[in-house]
């Protein structure tokens, strides 16, 4: 076969190589004008001529395999794998049993051990320990460098090994590095991986460990597997660097290409064999070796063993020589093209490469060649048809050639071709080469996306694609599968035109097809001619006159392209039915195979020839076409003849001297005439049956996916489309919709709420049970099986196929239904225009609704199958049902869905059909996503807009998403899709993904009706709340059309503001006619601003909020936040391409969004999950703002509360230490005044540290954006706490100073007493010194004189008397006018002690006033559920006379629950005021006086009188007496203790009696002749014994409180945590009285709980720890005293001081730690040996310290500080407000937390606090959290007929307004259990009944104590 040399050059000197199969004529009508005459054509090859199976050993792309050839000599093989060992020689134990390396020679050889192990030829090169590698050339491809590192030295050896490898072989070699850590058989190397991760270059998946001996086969096999994975990931698969040490910079640059391995002669094999007999070759190295320049196909090559035979050859190389050269040239040219486009080193491009946020696409900017491919794809994905025409940046470094030779004529220069200059010039890459290069380098899924976008851009698509090297032809049928075409067929019937709409997947559409060919080279453009037939204003087929066209192209020759003309049903349609146009690129004479396929498939063939001559070689083809029955049109370029029909169906027409429009019109006429008669049709799917070509769908992986999809389709095809969902997906239809309806009703309950709620929950569970029973459908089983078992690529094919086949299945039904809907809608509109209100309109509207329902039933897609997955999961999850064998494992469903979501599939967030969010499913799905990705930060972009306004199209173009956009299948519900932020863009953002939420659209036709507005508000609020930014998409410019959506959107933003969510927004106006007109845009923005302000005012009234303009609602700048979009189509669909201005607008909008997003940190996925739950739960209720509960915000606030507790404790504990020290100073007489400034200074260090911690917390916490709202508040609270602590300590210390001053006289007396007693004791001892007496005698002697001393000393002092409080109580009551009998009866019964916890105060009420009140009002008050008390009071007189009990019940019913609460409040207030008054009296310093109690008693009586004056009833005297006695009793203990303290401190007799033992010891010592030092030592030890015990106990109290505050679960959290443990404790004890105390006096009970827990901690559970703390403090005290002794002694010795100095030094040292009474030094002035004194004291302290070490912890209660009181002060300084309905206590840790509302997660049944229905004795079982969501009302004030809706409870008055009670249908089980457990006790306590409306729901009785306690834990976690 000869090849004709060509004179013309392509690309300015670059020779163009002809394809291998035959001599190729380029399609010069597209590229070379006027050059046709110069080009000579070769003869036409018959099909298959270029294919020589017996000679040509080339294979198509993909894997090439060289098979074995027989050998008569020793077999030599190529290595399948080459491994190079580098690193430390000590990392491996070389030996015969070492599988990897059985020798230590540094050579390269095959490993026989590895061959025996895995049957593969693996070459192992030992370069361990190599430093100088010059002598060791690497002349073969290396698949892996194994860096061996000894365990323990991995970090240092890794760094040095990597540096050596990079230096020796170049940076590229690092991609082939595998790290292997070796260890001894008994060593562990778990830390090695952790250590190596610290290196940035380390790749974890390329890491392995094994023993140094390398004998374990499993370890080596695992290593080889990892190497294989690495090889498959690398491209090229092996490293082909230079010989070690060779300078890489001098390497000759050649274009990269893959080496094509052909069968070689033995001689060639010998040339490529090294001295060891091993052939080394380069695989995929992109360069030709000097010894082997045979080309190779791209892709992955697997080299099998190739035995050689000496002197013989099985291949006749001479016969194939020319063909091999051609293949090499074509291959080089292809690789050069790929290299220029930066595609040669890439793996196949995939959709994932473009489904991410990358750098912005630069519009109207030149692009460098290397970026052309990506720029083309990015712009194509944005529907910019100008992607073909991307301007290329010129290389500015190359100067323009300048002819400056003066001896040359200018005219000669003008005609000079300047070949030298042209030789060095490289042409631009042809635009279609860019398209086809990207096509060849893309995987099948990106090809499919690419083809779909090309189709949307109205471009021709490649139908037959030759391989760029082998020229094997492929039909990419798979890539057409997602393309759908819509057209309207015009048919004439009875003189009228009937238009029928069709919408079909293009693969299934049977259309006409017109194929165009050229035979030879032409001077006209065939492609341009076809464009005039399809759309004259758009270049459907690229041609020579298109921008960017060049003289050369490489990849388009032989490609057959196809495009479809789709009529619009208009008179000016070119053709009446959908018609395909096919264009074979290049000379059809050269590409006979493609030509034959197309002529066979066409309805009409159109042939262009330069001239019609019998001798012309084109006549052979034309003759064959003439013999065919297919219509034929021959267009002759050089002929001017008119169109002539040669025979039936065969036409010829000249093109010479004719305008293009004439040619086009004539062609249309001819084709139309032909197609109006009988003709064959073309269906794309039939291309799969064409022989001799490859179809991409035949790939095994595609077939596997299709096979799995077909199993599902076989099931679906057995069922009518409209019944598929009901029959095969039963869980999401009627059952799910019913479940949603009942679930929503739970938030709008009426009647007996708890009973109704219980019944509805049972209904919900029954539905879930039915769903479970129906969940084992064969369809779902097949789906889950495929998703679980298929590899990722197969799975992707499976999902694509399933969607494609499902779409095809429902196409016909949908089309007919949509057409019916359109017709019926037109009829309804016509009747409405006539203002027809007849039954006909109603009937038509009913029919329209029926069609709409049918449309919903027939709409079926993959999203419905995933929806079924979610429902099956929710059903099983709610029942926790175990999976049966015949069912799939439902627990794995979220994992499967998460994988799909991460891979880029949109997942349904809100079910559009049911209008409901499946929270359980969505939560589990997001949890699985978090497990796989981590809790990544996402920026949530929500999109809102009117139905079919182009939202999904815009998003798909902007981010490359996959939201459904086809007609009749608009997005239903809300879908979410993840878009990753690319690595190069992460530096600009603080989040990792953009989460796009697309919605079904507002004002959807399918949802037309009464529910539309509610649904729109619900949807808008939901997505606005979810988004960090909301995109509001508006279609058109008419403000009237915008009004509805603007009102909905503004109201949604208003709600967000009220619940403290602050998203941003951008408005998008689509379909704007003239976006370039700035003035018009300004006017449009002005009108939009006005409309938004108007809507804001309307929404403000509805939402009860102040807002004058839209910017009051949300930060909005009309200049920056409004974007105008050009209309999508450039012309009229269906043939209009997208408007280039649209894609520009998309890019500009994307830039705006990302610019705003860069200022946001987004939210974490877990926060997004919480937000979904919070928003949806709030939306279930009628009043979103009242119902919204931001659990994320609550969680952050609860954590802040914990931190606040830690900060305040640090301040408190520091202040306690300071207080303790100053207290001791005051008691020691060293301090008589405390200044605030001094206390602040002492606290400053701790306070500054706390402030620093606070700043760090608010600045660095991951939730800092949310924390900022409380920063100022908490900073102020900490300051207030600090100041309060300082003031409080000053106040306490001032009281101590005041008391000290008040007792100064007595203190002076005490000092005088002590001095006299000391002197008298000494004198008496001296008198008796010489008289040796026994101990008993000494005692008698001392006792006899002691009494006299006391009388003498206290002669003028009156003793303090004891008090009798009981007597005072009775006398005071009598003085106030109460009878003795009444007082005595109350005291004897003891009932007054429980007055604060009485359940029913009815017995204290006088009925007379009630009777009068009833008579005045004529009738009793009514209730929503009033079952008693109807009629006038007089009507009950006869009834009263018959039975006192019934009338009592009547009056009891009239005595309202609110009255009970008011009396309780009176008691609580009086108790607090009275106790505060008593405590303010100076009893500890001045003693008790009965006047204090009298003052309190008068106050109480006044309060009761005042209370009665405001009520409609009176209180009996018994109430006042009981209340007074109760108040006295509460004050009794404090008065007694305080007076006792006063007496102890001020009674001289008591003081002296306490000193008796001390002075007896002094007396005895002196009697025994002890020195003054000994006696002083004993005296000091006696004083220290008391003071050290108190000091140790006080310090231990602080330490124990701190320990429990930090480690004890109940005390180490916030107020809510404490409440949880209190309730747990109550449940475990099951003590009803304890519950009542907690309910009535929560603070009192919590204090009691703290005391109990502290006692239990110290004496039981943590006794040893408490003892350890005590012992440590004893030891510290011992060290302190020893230091004081040493310091005082040394000081006196140094300064030669005396006893006074020593005592002064000693007490000064201990002044802050111990209280130490003064000692009269005058008696001990004779002491001069202070070392002896020190020793005596130390000796005397030993038993004291020993005794202290065994000190009982009970002693702590006797001293000033106790751990329980310290903890009470810390933990109870919080909010104690009660819920106005159920009396649950606010759980806010801060006492005054204004402006934040009161709240509590533990709301209760109202029966717990005695709530009952007005005028009945029926307890209220409902929870207030249920009531606020119900349609019921309540009486906010007793004895008032005004009723307020529970939903509007905040409007009922001050005590209601500050409470946040969020509706929550999942109540706390705890209180349900309590009501059932103590039912009888509650009835007796409150004297009410659980009957009638108050009957306990049966469901409650199923709960046990374990359920109750568990519910506390769950509630705490959720908070």
Number of beta-strand segments: 34
Distance between the termini: 84 Å
Radius of gyration of CA atoms, rounded to a whole number: 48 Å
- Average pLDDT, to the nearest integer? 78
Strand content: 5-15%
Low-confidence stretches: 1-76, 242-319, 396-400, 419-424, 1005-1010, 1409-1450
Going by helix content, strand content and strand pairing, the class is alpha/beta
The gross shape turns out to be elongated
Number of helices: 61
Largest sheet: 11 strands, mixed
Please estimate the helix content: 40-55%
What does this structure look like?
This protein has 1919 residues and is of the alpha/beta class. Helices cover 48% and strands 9% of the residues. The chain is built from 61 helices and 34 strands. Strands 10, 11, 14, 15, 16, 17, 18, 19, 20, 21 and 22 form an eleven-stranded mixed sheet that branches. Strands 9, 23, 24, 25, 26, 27, 28, 29 and 30 form a nine-stranded mixed sheet that branches. A six-stranded mixed sheet has the order 3-4-2-5-6-7, sandwiched between helices. Helix 15 links the parallel strand 17 and strand 18. Helix 8 packs across helix 11, helix 25 packs across helix 26 and helix 39 crosses helix 46. The longest helix has 42 residues. The two termini are 84 Å apart. The N terminus is likely disordered.
Provide a short characterization of the protein structure.
Helices cover 48% and strands 9% of the residues. By secondary structure, it is of the alpha/beta class. Strand 10 and strand 11 (473-475) form a beta hairpin.
């Amino acid at each position: 076969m000869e090849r004709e040399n060509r004179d013309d050059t392509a690309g300015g000197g670059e020779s163009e190589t002809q394809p291998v199969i035959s001599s190729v004529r380029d399609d010069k009508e597209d590229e070379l004008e006027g050059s046709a005459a110069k080009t000579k054509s070769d003869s036409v090859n018959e099909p298959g001529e270029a294919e020589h199976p017996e000679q040509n050993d080339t294979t198509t792309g993909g894997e090439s395999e060289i098979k074995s050839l027989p050998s008569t000599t020793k077999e030599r093989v190529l290595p399948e794998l080459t491994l190079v060992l580098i690193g430390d020689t000590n990392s491996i134990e070389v030996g015969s049993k070492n599988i990897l390396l059985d020798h230590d020679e540094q050579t390269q050889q095959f490993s026989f051990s590895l061959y025996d192990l895995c049957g593969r030829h693996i070459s192992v090169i030992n370069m361990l320990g190599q430093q100088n590698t010059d002598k060791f050339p690497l002349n073969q491809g290396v698949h892996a460098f194994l860096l061996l590192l000894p365990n323990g030295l991995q970090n240092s050896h890794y760094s040095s090994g990597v540096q050596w490898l990079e230096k020796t072989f170049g940076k590229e070699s690092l991609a082939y590095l595998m790290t292997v850590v070796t260890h001894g058989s008994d060593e562990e190397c778990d830390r090695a991986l952790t250590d190596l991760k610290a290196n940035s270059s380390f790749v974890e998946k390329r890491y392995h460990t094994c023993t140094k001996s390398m004998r374990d086969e499993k370890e080596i096999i695992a290593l080889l597997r990892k190497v294989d994975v690495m090889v498959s990931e690398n491209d090229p698969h092996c490293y082909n660097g230079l010989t070690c040490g060779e300078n890489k910079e001098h390497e000759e640059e050649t274009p990269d290409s893959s080496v094509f391995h052909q069968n070689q002669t033995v001689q060639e094999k010998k040339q490529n064999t090294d001295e060891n007999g091993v052939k080394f070759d380069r695989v995929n190295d992109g360069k030709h070796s000097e010894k082997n320049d045979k080309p190779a196909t791209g892709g992955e090559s697997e080299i099998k063993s190739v035995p050689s035979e000496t002197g013989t050859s099985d291949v006749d190389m001479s016969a194939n020589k020319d063909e091999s050269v051609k293949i090499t040239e074509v291959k080089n040219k292809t690789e050069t093209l790929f290299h220029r486009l930066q595609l040669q080193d890439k793996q196949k491009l995939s959709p994932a490469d473009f489904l991410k946020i990358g750098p912005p696409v630069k519009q109207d900017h030149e692009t460098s060649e290397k970026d052309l491919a990506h720029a083309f794809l990015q712009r194509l994905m944005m529907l910019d048809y100008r992607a073909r025409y991307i301007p290329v940046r010129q290389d500015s470094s190359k100067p323009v050639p300048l002819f400056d030779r003066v001896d040359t004529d200018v005219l000669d220069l003008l005609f000079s071709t300047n070949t030298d200059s042209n030789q060095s010039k490289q042409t631009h890459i042809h635009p279609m080469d860019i398209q086809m290069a990207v096509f060849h380098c893309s995987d099948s899924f990106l090809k499919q996306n690419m083809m779909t976008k090309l189709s949307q851009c109205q471009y021709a698509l490649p139908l037959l694609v030759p391989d760029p090297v082998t020229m094997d032809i492929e039909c990419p049928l798979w890539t057409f599968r997602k393309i759908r075409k819509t057209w309207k067929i015009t048919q004439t019937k009875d003189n009228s035109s009937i238009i029928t709409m069709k919408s079909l997947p293009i693969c299934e559409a049977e259309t006409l097809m017109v194929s165009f060919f050229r035979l030879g080279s032409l001077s006209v453009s065939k492609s341009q001619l076809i464009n005039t037939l399809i759309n004259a204003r758009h270049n459907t087929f690229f041609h020579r006159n298109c921008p960017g066209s060049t003289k050369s192209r490489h990849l388009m020759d032989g490609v057959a392209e196809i495009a479809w003309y789709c009529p619009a049903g208009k008179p000016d349609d070119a053709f009446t039915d959908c018609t395909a146009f096919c264009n074979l690129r290049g000379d059809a004479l050269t590409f006979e195979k493609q030509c034959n396929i197309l002529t066979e498939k066409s309805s009409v063939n159109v042939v262009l020839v330069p001239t019609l001559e019998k001798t012309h070689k084109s006549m052979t083809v034309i003759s064959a076409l003439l013999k065919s029955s297919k219509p034929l049109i021959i267009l002759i370029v050089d002929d001017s003849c008119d169109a002539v029909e040669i025979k039936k169906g065969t036409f010829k027409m000249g093109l010479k001297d004719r305008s293009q429009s004439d040619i086009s019109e004539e062609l249309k006429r001819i084709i139309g005439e032909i197609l109006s008669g009988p003709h064959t049709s073309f269906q794309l799917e039939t291309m799969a049956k064409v022989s001799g070509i490859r179809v991409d769908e035949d790939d095994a992986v595609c077939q596997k996916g299709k096979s799995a999809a077909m199993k599902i389709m076989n099931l679906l095809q057995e069922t009518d489309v409209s019944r598929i969902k009901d029959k095969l997906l039963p869980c999401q239809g009627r059952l799910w919709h019913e479940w949603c309806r009942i679930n929503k009703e739970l938030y709008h309950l009426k009647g007996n709420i708890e009973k109704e709620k219980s019944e509805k929950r049972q209904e919900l569970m029954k539905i879930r049970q039915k769903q479970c029973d129906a969940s084992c459908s064969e369809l779902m089983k097949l789906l889950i099986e495929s998703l679980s078992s298929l590899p990722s690529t197969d799975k992707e094919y499976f999902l694509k196929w399933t969607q494609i086949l499902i779409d095809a299945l429902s196409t016909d039904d949908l089309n007919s239904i949509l057409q019916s809907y359109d017709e019926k809608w037109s009829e309804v509109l016509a009747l409405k225009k006539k203002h027809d209100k007849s039954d006909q309109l109603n009937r038509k509207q009913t029919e329209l609704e029926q069609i709409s329902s049918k449309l919903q039933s027939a709409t079926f897609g993959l999203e419905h199958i995933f929806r079924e997955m979610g429902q099956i999961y929710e059903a099983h999850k709610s029942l926790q049902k175990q999976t049966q064998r015949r069912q799939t494992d439902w627990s794995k469903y979220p994992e499967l869905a998460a994988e799909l979501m991460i891979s880029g599939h949109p997942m349904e967030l809100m079910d559009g059909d049911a209008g409901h969010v499946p929270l359980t499913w969505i939560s589990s799905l997001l949890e699985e996503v978090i497990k796989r990705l981590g809790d990544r930060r996402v920026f949530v972009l929500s999109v809102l807009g009117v139905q079919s306004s182009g939202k999904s199209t815009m998003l798909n173009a902007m981010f490359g998403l996959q939201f459904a956009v086809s007609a009749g299948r608009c997005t239903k519900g809300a879908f979410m899709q993840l878009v990753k932020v690319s690595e190069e863009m992460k530096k600009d953002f603080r989040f990792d993904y953009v989460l796009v939420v697309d919605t079904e659209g507002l004002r959807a036709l399918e949802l037309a009706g009464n529910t539309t507005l509610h649904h729109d508000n619900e949807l808008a609020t939901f997505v606005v709340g979810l988004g960090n930014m909301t995109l509001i998409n508006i279609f058109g410019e008419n403000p009237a059309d915008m009004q509805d959506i603007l009102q909905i959107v503004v109201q949604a933003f208003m709600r967000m503001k009220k619940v403290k969510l602050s998203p941003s927004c951008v408005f998008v106006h689509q379909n704007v006619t003239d976006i370039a007109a700035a003035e018009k845009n300004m006017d449009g923005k002005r009108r939009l601003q006005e409309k938004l302000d108007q809507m804001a005012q309307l929404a403000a009234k509805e939402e009860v909020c102040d807002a004058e303009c839209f910017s009051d609602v949300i930060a909005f700048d009309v200049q920056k936040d409004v974007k105008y979009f050009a209309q999508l189509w450039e012309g009229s669909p269906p043939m209009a391409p997208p408007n280039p201005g649209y894609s520009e607008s998309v890019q500009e909008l994307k830039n705006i969004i990302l610019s705003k997003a860069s200022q946001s940190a987004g939210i974490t996925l877990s926060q997004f999950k919480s937000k979904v739950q919070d928003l949806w739960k709030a939306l279930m209720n009628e009043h979103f703002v009242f119902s919204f509960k931001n659990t994320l915000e609550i969680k952050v606030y609860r954590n802040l509360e914990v931190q606040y507790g830690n900060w305040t404790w640090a301040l408190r504990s520091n202040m306690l230490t300071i207080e303790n020290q100053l207290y001791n100073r005051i008691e020691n007489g060293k301090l008589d005044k405390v200044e605030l400034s001094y206390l602040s200074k002492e606290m400053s260090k701790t306070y500054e540290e706390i402030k620093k911690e606070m700043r760090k917390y608010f600045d660095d916490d991951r939730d800092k954006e949310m924390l900022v709202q409380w920063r100022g508040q908490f900073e102020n609270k900490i300051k207030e706490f600090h100041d309060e602590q300082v003031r409080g300590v000053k106040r306490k210390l001032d009281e101590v100073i005041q008391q000290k001053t008040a007792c100064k006289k007595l203190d002076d007396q005490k000092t005088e007493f002590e001095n006299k007693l000391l002197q008298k004791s000494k004198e008496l001892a001296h008198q008796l010194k010489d008289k040796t007496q026994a101990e008993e005698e000494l005692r008698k002697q001392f006792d006899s004189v002691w009494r006299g001393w006391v009388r003498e000393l206290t002669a003028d002092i009156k003793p303090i008397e004891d008090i009798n409080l009981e007597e005072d109580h009775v006398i005071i009551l009598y003085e106030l006018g109460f009878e003795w009998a009444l007082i005595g009866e109350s005291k004897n019964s003891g009932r007054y002690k429980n007055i604060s916890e009485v359940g029913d105060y009815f017995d204290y009420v006088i009925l007379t006033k009630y009777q009068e009140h009833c008579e005045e009002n004529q009738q009793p008050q009514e209730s929503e559920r009033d079952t008693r008390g109807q009629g006038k009071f007089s009507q009950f007189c006869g009834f009263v006379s018959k039975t006192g009990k019934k009338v009592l019940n009547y009056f009891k019913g009239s005595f309202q629950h609110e009255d009970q609460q008011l009396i309780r409040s009176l008691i609580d207030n009086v108790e607090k005021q009275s106790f505060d008054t008593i405590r303010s009296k100076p009893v500890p310093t001045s003693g008790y006086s009965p006047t204090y109690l009298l003052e309190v008693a008068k106050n109480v009586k006044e309060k009761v009188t005042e209370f009665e004056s405001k009520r409609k009833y009176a209180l009996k005297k018994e109430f006042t007496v009981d209340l007074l006695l109760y108040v006295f009793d509460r004050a009794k203990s404090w008065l007694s203790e305080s007076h006792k303290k006063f007496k102890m401190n001020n009674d001289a007799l008591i003081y002296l009696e306490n000193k008796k033992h001390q002075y007896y010891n002094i007396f005895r010592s002196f009697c025994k002749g002890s020195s003054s030092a000994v006696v002083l030592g004993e005296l000091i030890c006696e004083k220290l014994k008391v003071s050290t015990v108190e000091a140790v106990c006080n310090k231990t109290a602080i330490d124990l409180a701190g320990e429990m505050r930090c480690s004890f679960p109940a005390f180490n959290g916030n107020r809510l945590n404490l409440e949880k443990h209190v309730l747990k404790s109550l449940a475990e004890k099951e003590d009803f009285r304890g519950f009542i105390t907690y309910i009535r006096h929560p603070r009192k009970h919590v204090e009691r709980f703290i005391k109990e827990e502290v006692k239990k901690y110290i004496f039981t559970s943590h006794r040893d720890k408490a003892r350890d703390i005590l012992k440590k403090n004893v030891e510290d005290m011992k060290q302190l005293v020893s230091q004081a002794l040493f310091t005082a002694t040394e000081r006196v010795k140094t300064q030669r001081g005396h006893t006074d100095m020593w005592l002064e030094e000693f007490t000064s040292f201990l002044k802050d730690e111990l209280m130490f009474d003064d000692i009269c030094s005058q008696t001990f002035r004779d002491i001069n040996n202070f070392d002896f004194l020190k020793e005596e004291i130390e000796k005397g302290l030993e038993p004291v310290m020993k005794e202290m070490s065994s000190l009982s912890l009970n002693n702590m209660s006797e001293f000033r500080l106790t751990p329980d009181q310290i903890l009470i002060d810390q933990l109870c300084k919080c909010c104690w407000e009660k819920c106005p309905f159920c009396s649950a206590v606010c759980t806010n840790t801060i006492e005054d937390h204004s402006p934040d509302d009161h709240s509590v997660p533990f709301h209760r049944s109202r029966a717990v606090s005695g709530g009952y229905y007005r005028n009945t004795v029926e307890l209220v079982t409902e929870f207030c959290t249920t009531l606020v969501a119900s349609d019921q009302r309540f009486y906010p004030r007793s004895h008032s007929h005004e009723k307020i809706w529970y939903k509007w409870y905040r409007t009922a008055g001050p005590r209601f307004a500050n409470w946040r009670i969020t509706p929550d249908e999942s109540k706390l089980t705890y209180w349900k259990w309590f009501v059932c457990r103590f039912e009888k006790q509650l009835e007796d306590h409150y004297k009410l009944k659980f009957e009638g409306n108050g009957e306990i729901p049966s469901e409650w009785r199923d709960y046990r104590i374990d359920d109750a306690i568990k519910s506390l834990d769950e509630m705490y976690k959720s908070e």
